[in-house]
Amino acid sequence: MTVKSKSSWNGEIITCGVRTCLEVNPDVSRHSIHSNEVCDRFAVAGFNANMIQYLRNELHLPLVQATNTLNNFSGTSSFTPLIGALIADSFAGRFWTITVGSILYQLGMLGVTISAILPALRPPPCPPQSPSCHQASPWQQAIFYLSLLVTAIGSGGIRPCVVAFGADQLEQDSPTQRTNRTERRWSFFNLYFFCIGLSVMLALTVVVYIQDNVGWGLGFGIPTIAMFISVIVFVFGYPLYIRKKPGGSPLIRMAQVVVAAAKKRKLDGPADVRLLYQDQELDANITTAGRLSHTKQFKFLNRAAIVTDGDKTDTGRLRPWRLSTVHRIEELKSFIRILPIWSVGILLITSAANNFTFGIIQAKTMNRHLAGDFHIPPATLLIFSAISMLLTLTIYDRLIVPLARRLNNHPDGISHLRRIGIGLAISILSNVASALVENRRRRAVHKISVFWLVPQYAVHGVAEGLASVGLMEFLYDQSPESMRSISAALYWLSISLGHYGSTMLVTMVNDFTKKTKQGSWLQNNIDKGRLDYFYWLVAGLQVFNFGYYLVCARFYVFKRLEIAGDLNLAEDAEEKGGGEAELAVAA
Questions:
Q1: Which residue windows are transmembrane per the record (predicted)?
Q2: CB neighbours (10 Å) of residue 358?
């Protein structure tokens, strides 16, 4: 049996499960999504964490080629979510986009697992760094890369929709419950990243050990099975989910605003902004939580809402390429405003992308002995990043945020912008630690303990728990509700561009430094290179990125939401500016 719930804003029908939305979905469906995400992230982490070792030791690829392969794969996996988000928000919906993406990811993982099991799909074994080693043949590499491509396409359906779909389960009917819903939503984001960290930690201990000591077939097979379980859990939760109706292509709506404004570029706007075109019925599917109120930025776009002759057909139907509503104009404005803050994530990923791959190579040259005959697998060191992120999220969500709420009476406790800024500042210390430890490793007469690498991983985990989670929250909160999947895709797009930027950085540094007397900083034998110089270069880029962020955050203007059509309250609140206006409108 299906029960339907109406939104108090415009009466939109939202389909729910066997009980009402408020009885089941906020808890049961949310736990189902978290269970799915644990299995999914465990699979992805176990699949990717040690991939640099597989490329180097099994396919016998050179260091730079292996590193760039992973960066390109990560970049592609983080670019496809933009396409998946458009599909979800335009017509398919988030549930079915996630389902299809998960199936494709499963098929890609299955292909990689088979290539690790069948000897014919990889070159013959040989000792690492041996001159007699042969790289994987072109067709062997082609099969492997094709499997990776399928997983990247599958990621496009999963990554942009899971967070937005999970947050959808916390929607309430009454605007008076907005503050409570906001608090639960930010706890959801923290819990979401907590689940990621927990599953990554499990993968880095269990799966990586199996890959290094038992075999790559089983090491890839376990994440593949976990992904299968993830798909089953998610699909069987179908009756419990709130499934919002797609609101049409947001890109087309934004394009219509630009075209309409350009056509009316010679017109002067009305003195009273309430004369600009509004249409609640037209915007019904994209304003379930409220309309975006008029703002004073980007005044040129306001011309798209000036009513003139010819804006409607003889039958009274709107011509959207000539006339747009204020809400649709504000959608575009909101999107434009978040881009400078979003772009900070690109250089953040560029700076951090190679630290993990190079860190694993560093760990192989260090003393990894723990007890008896047990040696710590190099990729397992990533667990310290996961642990520190888990601790950061726990302390932040349970201690810092409640305390901040009591002090400033703000539902977020600490604003997203402050959280991102603190994380960016801390991330600089991670690369500084990397440079200092690498310099120490190179100068050591005997092998130093692998635990010297722990500080750089731990600091990175703290930074990620603040900057990455804060950026995801910011994009979700400040994007229009009809573009929530796209906002999540923007997060992954920044990761994509960051990985591509990292590939370009590695290639440029390698090409430039190999012409010097000392030779390349990034040699296959890192003892002959200067990896510490590379880390210092990356730290310098992060300092620049932090300064750029401070400027962007200083001039950012928060979106303003008009609840239940109270335009006068929205206009009064606009005078207060920024986030205070949004809180005043919601009160």
A1: 103-122, 142-167, 188-210, 216-241, 338-363, 375-396, 457-476, 488-513, 533-551
A2: 22
Averaged pLDDT, 22-42: 56
Could you tell me the CA-to-CA distances from 94 to 239, 244, 273, 576 in Å, in that order? Answer: 14, 8, 35, 36
What residues does 4 pair with on adjacent strands?
A: 15
Q: Are 319 and 311 in contact (CB under 8 A)?
A: yes
Instruction: Judge contact between 200 and 41, C-beta under 8 A.
Output: yes
Report whether 219 contacts 61 (CB < 8 A): no
Question: Would you tell me which CATH number, out of the four given (3.40.50.1220, 1.10.1240.10, 3.30.420.10, 1.20.1250.20), belongs to the domain 331-562?
Answer: 1.20.1250.20
CB 426 within 8 A of CB 459: yes
Query: Which CATH architecture best describes the domain 24-169+197-248?
Result: Up-down Bundle (1.20)
Tell how far CA 99 is from the center of its chain: 18
- Say what the pLDDT of residue 341 is: 94
Question: 510, 521 in Cβ contact below 8 A?
Answer: yes
All CATH 1.20.1250.20 domain ranges of the chain, comma separated, are 24-169+197-248, 331-562
Lowest mean pLDDT among 240-254, 292-306, 384-398: 240-254
For residue 374, the cross-strand partners are 371
Beta bridge partners of 312: 318
State mean pLDDT over 397-406: 86
**Rounded-to-integer distance, Cα 584 and Cα 581, Å:** 5
Per residue in 224-278, pLDDT (tens digit) is: 888 888 888 888 888 878 777 776 778 888 899 999 999 998 888 788 888 888 8
Taking the C-alpha atoms of residue 466 and residue 526, their distance in angstroms, rounded to an integer, is: 32
Give pLDDT, residue 176. 45
| pTM reported for the whole predicted model | 0.74
